[in-house]
Structure formats: structure tokens, C-alpha cells
Automatic annotation (TrEMBL):
<keyword id="KW-0210">Decarboxylase</keyword>
<keyword id="KW-0862">Zinc</keyword>
<comment type="pathway">
    <text>Secondary metabolite metabolism; quinolate metabolism.</text>
</comment>
<feature type="domain" description="Amidohydrolase-related">
    <location>
        <begin position="4"/>
        <end position="328"/>
    </location>
</feature>
<dbReference type="InterPro" id="IPR032466">
    <property type="entry name" value="Metal_Hydrolase"/>
</dbReference>
<comment type="similarity">
    <text>Belongs to the metallo-dependent hydrolases superfamily. ACMSD family.</text>
</comment>
<dbReference type="GO" id="GO:0046872">
    <property type="term" value="F:metal ion binding"/>
</dbReference>
<protein>
    <recommendedName>
        <fullName>2-amino-3-carboxymuconate-6-semialdehyde decarboxylase</fullName>
        <ecNumber>4.1.1.45</ecNumber>
    </recommendedName>
</protein>
<dbReference type="InterPro" id="IPR032465">
    <property type="entry name" value="ACMSD"/>
</dbReference>
<keyword id="KW-0456">Lyase</keyword>
<dbReference type="GO" id="GO:0001760">
    <property type="term" value="F:aminocarboxymuconate-semialdehyde decarboxylase activity"/>
</dbReference>
<dbReference type="Pfam" id="PF04909">
    <property type="entry name" value="Amidohydro_2"/>
</dbReference>
<dbReference type="InterPro" id="IPR006680">
    <property type="entry name" value="Amidohydro-rel"/>
</dbReference>
<keyword id="KW-0479">Metal-binding</keyword>
<comment type="subunit">
    <text>Monomer.</text>
</comment>
<dbReference type="GO" id="GO:0016787">
    <property type="term" value="F:hydrolase activity"/>
</dbReference>
<dbReference type="GO" id="GO:0019748">
    <property type="term" value="P:secondary metabolic process"/>
</dbReference>
Length: 340
């Protein structure tokens, strides 16, 4: 069975002039140094040093070959989302980025699955961009876990998720723009603390708001970074649901009964943590994710899964690729006369 990495980022070689489509938001662009290194830029500010696998597909495929990865789902770097921009500008930007991601993947279409981004700050435009991207060949859509103060359970974002379910487009949700960064100075604490918290907030928001009751079961939704702290703190959430009416006010079932409605990736980096994640989510709901090509990602893809002696060969195969094959499989054609 193929080894499929569902969580891998790309930053196509976009110039600052092209990034100025998002003027006023710290335009994202890529400064390439010509020696295999580069710098992700936000306006004049240096954001993160990077290497050529981020923007050169040949280097990426070579890295995949060396690591034994057959397929990557390629999604934009969250710095590129553009959610602060004026919606029409953001839609133009997303179309540009999506075209570049398609071109990036075109040289190895059997190895690289393109995922689109959308102007999530405007539901109608986001739906239009997602529809265009799906028609152009994108295999899914990559979104941030919030837009400003609007979490994924916001009615407009729920409407976008409904649209993705209707057109059969899988959704990869990634934490970004982390909370309380003023208290997380240094040591990459926003990534170490903020990312897990943001992801748990997104999942619990959908569960406790009753959003999953309003979304089609056909929605394929995956949360990056192992679902953050969700699995470890699920007992706390269930206890609160059973004992406080204000917690269960909008959800008909405790949080643990909704784990069949979404997926998570395997990026937890410890077999003990992965054991808990699989026990909570089920072996059919966890997929390999590495966060390639960033240094906080899994440096030997699949090593955590292969180190899990509680998984038999079939279970490891599901996590390494089988679940992702189902997640990204083309949606079946709707039955004539059915209601989406």
C-alpha cells in the first residue's frame, strides 16, 4: 500500500510584486538565495528560513524518494492565507496561489496532490474559489482554523464546510495565527503551545456548538498536528458535558461520540501519544502527516507509526496510506433526484 503524507507545505516562488495583491497585510513572498536556501517574507519582515524543497518540486520528489514517501498532499504555507485582506483581493490572490500549486504538482501528478486555499473571510467567494479549484484538478482545500475571532463553528464557515461536502472536496484544517502570542515569547512557544490549543479549540467548537449535526456526514475533514490536545483532554470535555448544562446546551451527545466525524494526522512524534490518539479516534481516522519541509515536522516520515508495536501490519498500513487513499478518493456521483 502507498505511503501518503497528508500534511506537507509548499510556498511557490512568488515575488514581492505578486504578493502585493494583498497590499496592506504584510504581503507574503519568497526570497530565494540561489544556493538552495531562501526566506519566507512578510512584507519587509523575515518570517522563516527555508530550503528548496518548499518551492522546487524536483527537490521535493527527491526527498520523498529518499524517505520512502509515495505521495504528498501539498498545501500552502499558512502565512499565505491572506485572511486579513479585502475579500476580492484575497480571491485574486488565492486563484494565483492555486494556479501555482497546480503548476508545482504538474510535473509529478502521481506523486503530488494539490490542495487549494480560499478567501475564507467571505463565504460566497470562498465557495466560488473552491469550486473553481476543484474543477481545475485540486484534490482538497486547505484552511486555517479561524478567521480573526471567528472559529470553525461560525455559521458562515460552517456553510463553507457544507459546500465542500456538497462538491466532494476534502478539507485540511491547520492551526495558525496563534492565540496569546504576547505571552509566548521565544523558544517557538506559539508553535509548541499555541498550535495544540488552537486545534483543540477548533474541534471542541464544532462539537459543542452542534455544528456537526448541521453538516453532512459526507464531509471529509482532517485536523493537522494530531488534533492538538484534543485526544489527551477528551475525558475532561466529556466530564464537563455530563456535569454542566452550559457545556451541553447546544450538543446532543458528548464530545467522544463525534470522533467518527473527522480525521487527524499522526504528527505527535511519540508512539505513546499515537497509541492514545488511535484509541480515541480509531485506527481508521488517523493519517500520516509530517509537516514537510519544516524542522518541527517528522524528520523520518512514518517513523512514529512504524515504532508502534500495538499496531499490527494492517493497522500500520492504514495509518501510512490506506486511510488517506479513502480520504482523497473521488467523491461518488450524486444519485439522481437526491438532496445534497
Amino acid at each position: 500500500m502507498a505511503v501518503i503524507d497528508v500534511h506537507a507545505h509548499v510556498f511557490p516562488h512568488l515575488t514581492r510584486a505578486e504578493g502585493r495583491v494583498l497590499t496592506g497585510t504584510g504581503e507574503p513572498w519568497l526570497r530565494v538565495h540561489g544556493d538552495g536556501t531562501g526566506m519566507m517574507m512578510s512584507g519587509d519582515q523575515e518570517y522563516r528560513p527555508v530550503h528548496a524543497g518548499l518551492w522546487e518540486p524536483e527537490r521535493r520528489v527527491a526527498d520523498m524518494d529518499a524517505a520512502g514517501v509515495d505521495v504528498q498532499a501539498v498545501s500552502s504555507t499558512p502565512l499565505m492565507f491572506g485572511y486579513d485582506a479585502e475579500p476580492a483581493r484575497a480571491a485574486d490572490w488565492c486563484d494565483l496561489v492555486n494556479d501555482r500549486i497546480m503548476a508545482y504538482c504538474a510535473g509529478a501528478p502521481d506523486r503530488l496532490l494539490p490542495l487549494a486555499q480560499v478567501p475564507l473571510q467571505d463565504t460566497a467567494l470562498a465557495c466560488q474559489v473552491a469550486t473553481r479549484a476543484a474543477a481545475a484538478g485540486h484534490r482538497g482545500v486547505h484552511i486555517g482554523n479561524h478567521v480573526g475571532e471567528r472559529n470553525l463553528d461560525d455559521p458562515q464557515i460552517v456553510e463553507f464546510l457544507r459546500h465542500c461536502a456538497t462538491i466532494g472536496l476534502p478539507v485540511l484544517a491547520h492551526p495558525w495565527d496563534m492565540m496569546a502570542t504576547e505571552r509566548m515569547r521565544g523558544h517557538m512557544l506559539p508553535w509548541l503551545v499555541g498550535m495544540p490549543a488552537e486545534t483543540q479549540l477548533s474541534i471542541l467548537g464544532l462539537l459543542l456548538s452542534g455544528a456537526f449535526e448541521r453538516l453532512p456526514e459526507s464531509l471529509r475533514l482532517c485536523f493537522c498536528h494530531g488534533g492538538g490536545s484534543f485526544a489527551f483532554l477528551l475525558g475532561r470535555a466529556d466530564n464537563a458535558w455530563h456535569n454542566r448544562d452550559i457545556v451541553r446546551a447546544d450538543s446532543s451527545r458528548p464530545p467522544s461520540e463525534y470522533t467518527d466525524r473527522f480525521y487527524v494526522d499522526s504528527a505527535v512524534f511519540d508512539p505513546r501519544a499515537l497509541r492514545l490518539l488511535v484509541e480515541v479516534m480509531g485506527v481508521e481516522r488517523v493519517m500520516l502527516g509530517t509537516d514537510y519541509p519544516f524542522p518541527l515536522g517528522e524528520q523520518i516520515p512514518g517513523s512514529t507509526i512504524r515504532a508502534c508495536d500495538f499496531l499490527d501490519e494492517a493497522g500500520q498500513a492504514r495509518l501510512l496510506g490506506g486511510n488517506a487513499e479513502a480520504f482523497f478518493a473521488p467523491a461518488p456521483a450524486p444519485v439522481a433526484g437526491s438532496v445534497p
